[in-house]
Amino acid sequence: MYFCRIERPAHLFRSRTAVALLFAVNGFIYANWTSRLPRLQEVYGMDNGQTGFALTCLAVGALLAMPLAGFLIVRFGSRRLTVLSSLGFILTAPLIALMPGYWVLLFIMPLVGVSTGVMDVGMNAQAVDVERLWGTPITSSFHAFFSGGMFLGAGAAAGFIQLGFDVDRHLLVVAAITLCVAVYAWRDLLQDEPDAAEQTAGSVSKFGTAIILLGIASLCTMIGEGGVADWSPIYMTRVTGSAEALAPIGQAALSGGMLVGRSLGDAIRLRFGSIKVVRVGAFMAFVGITTAILFPIPWLAIAGFALVGLGLSNIIPVVFSEASKVPGLRPGVGISSVSTIGYSAFLFGPPIIGFISDYQNALLPQGMAFFPGVAGLRVGLGVVALLMLVLLMVSVFFLRVRQ
pTM (2 decimals)? Predict the structure, then answer.
């Protein structure tokens, strides 16, 4: 039997590498600053509710910027936008640790949100173009690099803490490292041109049942991922009683699980089908987060977070792929509709968990028998468990995807 090998130009390999590196940079920066949330709470004197409000300010900046990013890509192309936004994210992230007080921090967080939100849109647009030229599905590989960046970032954060770096010096070093990587990657991004067809197509989309269901799946998945990524460091220190140096390991376990799952994602989908990937993944994530909530022991919490990452790893690639095939919608419109719902959840989910956590602590200042100790954050992460059940029910009873 003979197999046909697809010959691809060398510049396309370089472009794929460049986009993958920017996904990794995004994840690396994100993991480093969120891993230091326990220390940032001390620096600015924040409780969980105030931390949640700061994250909300970041979310507002990102969500305001995302629609503008779509317009700018049509007008100027994704390459220029990706370069400028990644530079902005690298330079603004260290400012999170350099503000003179909490109220000034609230003015900086939207700027960080704008840069990371636009970077998300820009690098995903580059990924779509690379995949189209590549000729075979490679979506999971780019998301794997984001997870790999988060995994390395959480590990690096643990190392910086162990070496005695305070959060301000830590994030400045991270900025220097990621700037070098980004400059290297910028050279080989695809030089795309505005698409006249997209400019004249208009922005009106047909939100049918398929888009709504895919949007719900995206929302549940990204709240799960974002909630565990942002709150696992605080959960490790405040609930399981771990040392600060161990706090990023919960986040690293989440990212490691996602990295493993996404590295094998294309082969898994080909062997078992997309719908089984979603159903089994939702069940695994539910078991993982429930384990971490019910058994706040460091090694069990870490194992639970890893299972969450493994379960959620390939759901978003499946959802985005299906959104591009919805009948009656242009591929870009379907993906944009679902991703907007998902990314808004990814950004707003963690703050909501913070508010619920503080509300529960206020209701239960002495704790309760079933959730002794820091009850609030455990109840807050219960939102993730509930959404995993919703995702499982949607995938079993309603969602239909191509096998």
Answer: 0.76
